[in-house]
Every structure is written in C-alpha cells, then in structure tokens.
C-alpha cells in the first residue's frame, strides 16, 4: 500500500484540528481577556531505506540517504498570552493589568482560579464578583452608601463615603504570575487553573517584581487578530485540500496499477 495515502490522511486530520482552533479564536474575538491558541505540529517517524554516510565503495560514502516520512501529528495547542488591546469604558469596576499577571478568583468549591478578565460586578450583598458571581480575591464588600470607587495602579481598593473627606480603603488587590502561563489549564468562563507545567502562582502587589500595574476604567480585549486568523484559515484550508488531492492522486496511481494488462 502506498505510504502517501496514510501520510496525507494525517495531514487532513491535523488541519481539521487546526481549523477547530482557529474557529474558536474567531468565536472569541470579542471575549474580554481571551488569549488565542495555536496548534504546534511535529513530523512523524521516518523509515530509513538508505543510511546517510553509509559506504558505497572503498573510501566513498553516500552524501545523503533515503528517508521517507510518515506524515504529521499535532503535539500541542498553546495559549499565547500576549497583551490584548485596551478599551476604555469609564466603568469604575472595569480593571486591566498592564503587563504580566492574573486576577485571583474564588470558585464555589473554594479553589482559586485565575483570569485576565477584569470586568467586575457588584452582587446583591455588595461583594465584588465576576460576571458568573465568583468572588474576587480578596473579598471586597462595597458599602451601600458608597458614592465613588477608586482602584489605584498598585491595587488599593477604596471608596468615597458621604460626609468623609478621605477615601475608605476596603482591600488590597494582588495579582498572581506563573513561570509558564502557557501551562495553565483553561476551564472556560475566562478562567485558568494551575498545573504541574505552569508552576506555582507567585502572588504580589501590582507593579512589583514584574507584575503589571492596574488601570481602572478599561477592559482588555482578546488578543485575536482577525486578519491573521483568516490568513491561517486559508492556509489550513489549502493544506487540507492539497492533502485530499494527494489521496486522490495515490488512488489514481493504484487504479492504473490494477488495470495493467500483460
């Protein structure tokens, strides 16, 4: 059986996964804090028919050999944690991180998740929460009579109360950083959890030890570039088409061989 049939089939399967990743990037082009993904491919094992450097005759060797590949396989789908563009909202509970870092979020089971989504809300009890109602760490409760909210670049969360000259500090927001953010596990809802590949979170005050500062009144848009994803989609589509043509060509060659007559 011709190797090209199997090699081309691996190429088609790989491009199917590539299209899946591209389509998810495009679907999340307006998702706050979304980080795009990329598929990494790797060639499969080679069958060596002639070893490079093997002797031809006395004192002579083959300068190159004959090695036949067996296709391709996807080895990783990597998150790209480049900075997305900022959109000004002037909403006091919209916060972005200018640089590295993640906000800390407490899940209902008590675990901590991490996010770049700083579009916060206020719950019925005055707590600062995500759009899904998960508590922001630390747990900050805004008084009902607060008339203004101020979040500094270093993460100090304060409010203005009636008949008070000075702001009342409610808490200190800290951000977490990872030695390998690409190793984080995405769990949906703009959240990530650490894994053995990401390393342990390093928590610090924004603006210190390579942690980005905070900016109030902005949200971070997805780092997806539509034109780039469309180009990637065209390349993937053409690669899929080319591999399908390879299968058709191999099939035609087999048909010719089957129709040979003495």
Characterization of the model:
By secondary structure, the chain is of the alpha+beta class. It folds into two domains: 112 residues, no CATH class; 131 residues, no CATH class. The protein is 22% helix and 32% strand. The chain contains two helices and 22 strands. Strands 10-9-13 form a three-stranded antiparallel β-sheet, with no helix packed on it. Strands 14-15-16 form a three-stranded antiparallel β-sheet, with no helix packed on it. It is elongated. 23% of the residues are buried. The model has no long low-confidence stretch (mean pLDDT 93).
Note the main attributes of this structure:
262 residues, alpha+beta, 2 domains, three-stranded antiparallel β-sheet, 22 strands, 32% strand, elongated, Flg_bb/hook_C_dom, cell projection, Flagellar basal-body rod protein FlgG
Number of strands: 22
The strand order across the widest sheet is 10-9-13
Classification by helices and strands: alpha+beta
Low-confidence stretches: none
Distance between the termini: 22 Å
Domains, number = 2
User: Kindly state the mean pLDDT as a whole number?
Assistant: 93
What percent strand? 25-35%
- C-alpha Rg, in Å? 27 Å
Number of H/I helices: 2
Oligomer: single chain
List the helices and strands and how they pair.
Blueprint: H1 3-27, E1 37-43, E2 46-50, E3 55-57, E4 60-61, E5 66-69, E6 72-79, E7 86-88, E8 95-98, E9 103-106, E10 112-115, E11 121-122, E12 128-129, E13 135-136, E14 148-151, E15 156-160, E16 168-172, E17 175-177, E18 185-188, E19 191-193, E20 202-204, E21 213-216, E22 218-220, H2 226-258
Antiparallel strand pairs: 1-6, 2-5, 3-4, 7-22, 8-21, 9-10, 9-13, 11-12, 14-15, 15-16, 17-20, 18-19
Helix pairs in contact: 1-2
């Amino acid at each position: 059986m011709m190797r090209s049939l199997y090699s081309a089939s691996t190429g088609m399967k790989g491009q199917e996964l590539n299209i899946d990743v591209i389509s998810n990037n495009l679907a999340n082009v307006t998702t706050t804090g979304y980080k795009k993904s990329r598929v990494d491919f790797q060639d499969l094992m080679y069958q060596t028919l002639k070893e490079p450097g093997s002797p031809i005759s006395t004192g002579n060797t083959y300068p190159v050999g004959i090695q036949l590949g067996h296709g391709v396989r996807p080895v990783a789908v990597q998150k790209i944690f480049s900075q997305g563009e900022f959109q000004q909202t002037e909403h006091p509970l919209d916060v972005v991180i200018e640089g590295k870092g993640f906000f800390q979020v407490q899940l209902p089971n008590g675990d901590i998740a991490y996010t770049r989504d700083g579009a916060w809300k206020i719950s019925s009890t005055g707590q600062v929460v995500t759009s899904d109602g998960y508590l922001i760490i630390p747990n900050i409760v805004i008084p009902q009579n607060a008339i203004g909210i101020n979040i500094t670049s270093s993460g100090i969360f304060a409010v203005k109360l009636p008949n008070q000259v000075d702001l009342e500090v409610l808490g200190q927001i800290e951000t977490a950083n990872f030695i390998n953010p690409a190793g984080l596990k995405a769990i949906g809802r703009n959240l990530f959890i650490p894994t053995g590949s990401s390393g342990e979170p390093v928590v610090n005050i924004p603006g210190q030890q390579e942690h980005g500062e905070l900016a109030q009144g902005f949200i971070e848009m997805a780092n997806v570039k539509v034109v780039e994803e469309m180009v990637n989609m065209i390349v993937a589509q053409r690669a899929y088409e080319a591999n399908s043509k390879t299968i058709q060509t191999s099939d035609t060659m087999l048909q010719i061989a089957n129709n040979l007559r003495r």
